[in-house]
Amino acid sequence: MLKFVLASLMSLVFSLPIMAVEYEDHDGMLMNHGDGHLMDMGGGMVMGQNTETLPGGCEKISETKEITVHAGHKFAEKFPGRMFAFDTQEFNFKPCTKLTVHFYNDDKVRHQWMMHGLPKYLYPQGMFHLEVSGPGKISGTLILPPGDKTYLVHCDIAQHMEKGMKAELKVGKGDGDLPSIPGLTAPVVPDDYEGTLADVAAAKVASDATAASVATAVKAPPVAPQQPDDSFVSGVTVIGLAIGLLIAPFLAKKFKGMTAAEIVAYVFDLLRTLIDLGINLVSKLIKLLVANKNKILPER
Ligand SMILES: [Cu+2]
Description:
The protein is of the alpha+beta class and about 300 residues long. The chain has helices at about 1-15, 195-220, 225-255, 260-300; strands spanning about 25, 30, 40, 45, 65-70, 85, 90-95, 95-105, 110-115, 130-135, 135-145, 150-155, 165-170. It binds copper (II) ion.
């Protein structure tokens, strides 16, 4: 009996289809959240899906187009210094084109095909956005606005655009070019490859020398031993550290989602509260002392 179970289990395992599919198809199992927002559990997402609403100024759909775009590290190999790229850097369509994008992610990290600057009454935050985490494919459709305009298309994952995953999409004639499109337009701040290794070494020696002379200048005045002071400082430091460690998790929770300005305001508020508490405590102590003194004095 046991042998039979084992044998059937083995045959089941070996009869499973071999997972040779490179891309996971995310189109079939998308859940519609309304507002053109579709997503699945596998990390596939479409935002700004619009298959039928005409943008203002479009009398009808001028053309229906389908494109396939790949995203991946390998497409950046031909662009020196870049790490990620789309396989296409430039797109051009007639105004009011109904455009379906089949987006393939060839990498094992998350990539997006995110288009910006669309009319916000039609596209949430003015965006049309396809996203796949890991090797996979997703498709989405939008209707392009009228007029000549150049739209930014990029991957918004941290540093992916800076590392090359950037393209431009011109509707009509477009309205100029965007900078730093790999292989297409010049960067705003070009990398400087003018210096030689010897220059770099010389610069380092110079800066080390400056640092050393500054250090000597700072050390120059003889300092009298300050043993008590030092121990006092280190004692305060230890207490500060302990308090910091104790309240850090609480503060981390508190600061989550706050801007730098809000955090600074909060810290100042906290400090003021602590100082108020301290002043209160000291004044109470003084009152207590004075009261005691007054009590004692008449008896004298
Ligand atoms: Cu990416």
